[in-house]
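Complex record, two chains
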Amino acid sequence: MTKDTTDQYWKSLNEPQAAGDEFPEPLDATRVGFRRREFLRAAGFVFGGAALSGCGKAPVERAIPFLDKPEEITPGRAVYYASTCDGCTAACGLLVKCRDGRSIKLEGDPQHPLSRGGLCAVGQASILGLYDTQRLRHPLRRGQPSSWEEVDRIVMETLERVRADGGAVRFLTNTVHGPTMRTAIGDFLADFPDARHVVYDPLSSSAILDAHERTHGVRVLPHYRFDQARVIVSFDADFLGTWISPVEFTAAYQSGRNLEVARPEPSYHVQFESRLSLTGSKADERIRIAPGEVGATLTRLAALVARRAGVSFEASGSTEELEPIAQRLWGARGDSLVVCGAQDADAQAVCNFINQTLGNYGITLDIEEPSHQLQGSDRELATLIQELDQGRVSVLFIVGVNPLYDLSGSERLEELLRKVPLVVSFAERLDETAETAHFVCPDHHYLESWGDREPVAGTVSLLQPCIRPLGDTRQLIESLSAWRSAPKAAHEVVQEHWRTHIFPQQAEQVSFQSFWDKTVRDGCVKLDHAPAPARQFNAAAVQPIPSATSNEFTLVLYPKVGLRDGRHAYNPWLHELPDPITKVTWDNYACLSPLAAQQLRVSEEDVIRIKGASSVLELPVVIQPGQHDRVVAVALGYGGKITERFADLAPRWLEAKPTVAENGRVGTNSAPLLELSGGTLRYVAAVELQAAGKRHPLACTQVHHNIRVPENLAPPGGEVRPVIQETALAEHQSNVRSGKEYSEHEHADLWGEDHPFTGHRWAMAIDLNACTGCSACVVACQVENNTPVVGKDEVRRSREMHWLRIDRYYQGDGNDVRVAHQPMMCQHCEHAPCETVCPVLATVHSEEGLNQQVYNRCVGTRYCANNCPYKVRRFNWFDYPRNSTLENMVLNPDVTVRSRGVMEKCTFCVQRIQEAKIEARRQGKPVEDGAIQPACQQTCPAGAIVFGDLNDPDSRVSQLLRSSRRYQVLEEINVRPSVGYLRLVRQQSPATEGEAHG
Amino acid sequence: MASSSSLLRQPLIAGDKTPGEVTSDICAVLDRRLSRGWWAAFLPALALLLVGAVAVTYQVVTGIGTWGLNNTVGWAFDITNFVFWIGIGHAGTLISAILFLLRQQWRTSVNRAAEAMTIFAVICAGIFPVIHMGRPWLAFWMFPYPNDRGPLWVNFRSPLVWDFFAISTYFTISLTFWYVGMLPDLATIRDRTAPGLRRRMLEIFSLGWDGSYRTWQRYETVYKLLAGLATPLVVSVHTIVSWDFATSVIPGWHTTIFPPYFVAGAIFSGMAMVMTLMIVARKTMGLEDYITHAHVDKMAKVTLATSLMVGLAYLTEFFTAFYSGNSYEQFVFLNRAAGPFAFGYWIMVLCNVSVPQLFWFRKVRANLAVVFVMSLLINVGMWFERFVIIVSSLHRDYLPSSWAGYAPTTIELATLAGSFGLFFACFLLFCKFVPVINISEVKGVLSVGRERRAAPEPEHAAPVRQEGVTA
């Protein structure tokens, strides 16, 4: 570069002559020595740093406050919004816990008239769906991301054409009982000349509705009132686990059996069933019958009841063993209840006849204010498939169901769907059906939505959004209104419907605004509903069912407590939740009775081939005591496309094995063996079984099932461990007042009291009689305490992280088993063996009786876990993946996320204790009994868990722990647990008393 | 060999050595270049050590989940290996301290190697409590030292803290004892070494030893004092290790018999390991004259005695369980003998109780090949003893619901292999760079100058030490 300086001006004599040389000296990185400015800068930095670090405290960091603070949000304080659970159609009441604008936990709404504060495992887990990374975030057109404008334009054009052509529009949904939604769908369809709303439920109860149409002339699902029933006879209805509305039924069932509440007699429950269900595990009397015998057994029972009532009803076969049951039913006529879960309208009609003859309608079964929880009609589904077959359907909307997964013959169905000119799916995730749809218009998650539900006639609850929609999704109501060229916000639609339809049905509130505000706050309202007129019973519609014994194997497809129909199969919490009976996670399997397994020469984890009429399944075997010998039971809900996400779920290391099977999915879909015949979805089918000569590993959390130790290792007198204590009802009743006091010092002690417990002393009582094993608490604990999911391989290695587990023990000979469920968590021992052995004091006793684990002090020797007699401590073997910032939004900010290498365990939800104590101090009041509910207690539908202060003699927990039923697990080793259990009280049927002891 | 009719004892050192010969014999190994045989042993040991190092690194980086442990079985290979190596370490102190105080002169040929073995075994053992932690980088929290975390102290009630004290004390005393005992020999080598770096190093490490009466007198005082200090450690270390288990509430662990049982087992396994190493060393290093059949015979007798003690302990445990009337306790022992880990139990009984009974026979004791194989079996048996105690007690404790199994992963197997690699690599280096046999003490038990004495030896054969430095 040549420099010509002549035509440049200069300002001072110091100015360099070279114009291009801006810096007076060349910059030299290697130059040693400071210049003055640099020295001052460095010195300033050093002095400043020294001054800062010299301060006693680190500088206080202040989060930036809201510039525009929402009125009700205080950072760090939780806000609860009342809403309604949409995990299934039971529609339990919810309180959504929101922290700083994000929903983090669902709690049962104690004011809800049906669910009464309980929430099931599925409901608890459904919050994870909100933060699911694979939830659709925008509409799809032929699988490609699209915009709402484009979707609206094409859908509206097509609809216009169809309206003009008179083409058939079908709206396929699962049960929709939200009044606003029903009206919206109705209004939408009313615009078309040939439009119909087709409803089916993947877990159908349509036979019950069909039977009522026959016998009572109205297609309704009765509202079952288990709380009113003194004798309950159930035929294959798993009403405590998965049937219709398990939370409501569990609460009601338990209120009729609570030994602490004054009531002459707890209800008596007989369960006829083919597989061992959760409900069967609680029954006072359990009778194994093949699914094919349900109708005939009902008929014989009907005949016995009819004879007593002086009505004629014919039945063939021996009725001797049913005699005592009929007698009990007759003795409790008017407040007994016979329910049947079989998808067989004939059998259901007989069931109706029995209830009618006993005079139970209007008392334990309500068809005047019936349930709306399942309204599916399999017949209409069959008609729709026929129409599709004929190519008559022009537009098909699909909401809340996944027919290509739920139903058998999915290949053919897929072809049929492809022939429909317009298929619109509203799926939240890209499931099998949504994949074939032309458009996917993803609906909001229910926690982002406005809506309402009417699970039982006259009981209406609201859904309100608790968070702003996370994606570019749109509520179904809004899509429908947009396509009617009258776009309206969901909030407006719901409010409008309530103003015109719901508000007039009540008299309590005068102004709509106060009615609305109150309902939004409470979540639920009871309407002054005019009951439907009583219906005449049509006895002619009931036909006796002849006995049809067959020696073939019958397949029973059943819903699992965690996964139900598979709509929540995206949810790792539910996959990792051990099945309450088999304790297997992350798989479905074929349950066989011990005898059947012996006959087929298969053992656990051997794969068997199940050959049905149209399809063949291969599944690993689980040997299930208490199951009928000619039955193979397989869970629905597995093997869906949405389980492919679990391919890399677990920690990765040298010997890690994937959570998914060879097919890339979790479990196998058993729906191909489902039959839709005679207008009914049938969950039973005749099958052939054959060993496949393969093995498939299963991840079971409880390897040893029995309360007995293995026979060859049993020391004399030590065959049965006194872990579960039980007593007979008669004994309990004669002895109930002479309860032994809660005694502190049953064992001599070398040391003085080192814990005075002057303030609070936290304790827990668990009623084994109430606990059904439904496992809601397990998931609630997992959500509340940020417990990681570890995947199948880790569970198989006995490294599951659940702080709360439910131990399930069998007693008996493998055929007539008795089951006990025992929730087991940290017992917060007063003489905690874990505390003395920790070398670094990472686990210590609090002055309120809590056994505390200090995560950041723990070095992970695992000595505490070894020395725990209850084995409730959980170790972080790996850094469990928490890579998704979206999914991490569900984490409870009050609970530390534990790092690798530290021990953790139940804390009695110490964060809730602290919160309640701080709140009480703020209000200047003592902590009220019941103000602190750990997550497990809060969600328990049966109210089996009670937490409180033992230093308060009037607290519920103190009262329960003074009960004669109280015992402590492993009392004899004198670790003095703070958790007391209340003995099981069995009502033994005299006939089975002798043989029940195996 | 001397005739059996002689009134004299069998000489402890064969071959009619003069003190000068002793020095040159033992130092010969140090003077020679590294032999092929040595490399043939050292390289595999080093390879094993590397395998172990890779495994441990992987485990520390990835997480302790790379071991086969689970919620029920929180310890298995880790603590088994720890107790095993600590046990191996026991014979060293026993031979060097207790036998010294009891004036058992046969110890002179083996004490140096046994002490070295102790130190290496304790190093191997010490690794496991650190790497078995979930967060081994925080292992220093086990030290009770003033700190700015509160200050937060260790839990003095925890047996793991006692362990920490016991083992660090044991290691310190053993190392000191070993080093002090080596001073005269280091001086001997120094005097044989040409000036240079090596000689300079030896001058430093021999602490200016000059062979004067005063030096000897102080040396002997210190040595005796250290022996006295080390003696209680023989009992204390394994007693405290056993408290890890005995103070717990787990059936099968909660047993007062554990301290003597563990100490006996430790001496048993340590003796077996000394025999294993010495039989190899005498053969490969040409030390047959120093480590004679008589030495092996005596060690075999100690092994037999401790085997009987261990066997008695096994029986006592069963009797106690039976007599206790405690069904949990009874179950644990039935489960040990017939449960899923019964193979471990029966290997243990076979190797630790049945096999050593052959030592009743002089012929067996004299057959070095048989003794060698038996010593290996005993070590296998003793490893399984710890495995059985730890795993079979944990895997089925109180609540049947939490029963579980256990199987080691490759990482655990590699870590075990690595600990053997470390041990043998250290021992081979020791063989090469330090006199394997205590030259000065061996000279003291030579028959020089006493050979033709008519009367039996005096009770106390005061060694004539001066040759030690002038040879």
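Note: Residues 1-6, 452-459, 461-471 of chain B have pLDDT under 50 and may be disordered.
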